[in-house]
Amino acid sequence: MSLFGEKQNIVVASPVEGIITHHGTPAAGAQVEQFLRWKDENGETRTVETDKSGHFLLPVREDEVRISPLSRFVIHQKITVRFQGEETVIWSLGTSHRELYGELGKKPEALHCELTGEPATMELEDGLLYTLCHWN
After folding, report:
1. pLDDT tens digit string along 45-75?
2. For residue 2, what pLDDT band results from cuts at 50, 70 and 90?
């Protein structure tokens, strides 16, 4: 066993698919930006745009990394929506899970994020999730 760890394939971020609304109506044309940090301080940003129904899909992000057995590996995820001149954080999470849908323990079905909704904090197995979204 190496102090630097063996290379392993990990899921940095599971796919996130859902609907974004603003005062209950689809946020068509909203910019959905996902910031991921796991390998360095700079991180990585991906952006998609919602369709006319407010639907968006951020695909899975995988990587091959070395994880030292002497340190704790943490992935930071933040999703921000830009719509009508406003910027709203809809998802912020730190997790050590590295498997598909490990962040929540299962695939979130029927994800819906209301930009004007009340934020919620969910206690997860290995951290806290701040979100404006709900799902089944």
Report:
1. 999 999 999 999 999 999 998 887 777 788 9
2. low
pLDDT of 127 reads: 81
Q: How many helices (H) and strands (E) does the chain have?
A: 0, 13
> Where exactly are the structural domains of the chain?
7-134
- Residue pair 128/121 in contact by the 8 Å Cβ criterion: yes
pTM of the model: 0.91
Please work out, in degrees rounded to the nearest 5, the angle formed at the alpha carbon of residue 111 by the alpha carbons of 110 and 114.
Answer: 125
Closest C-alpha to 13, from 130, 101, 80: 101
One-letter amino acid at 24 equals G
d(CA 87, CA 121): 19
Cβ-based neighbour number of residue 99 at 10 Å: 9
Find tokens 């940090």 and name the residue: 37
Q: For the domain with range 7-134, which CATH number is right: 1.10.3470, 2.60.120, 2.60.40, 3.30.460?
A: 2.60.40
Asked whether 95 and 36 are in contact (CB, 8 A), the reply is no
pLDDT above 60 for 79: yes
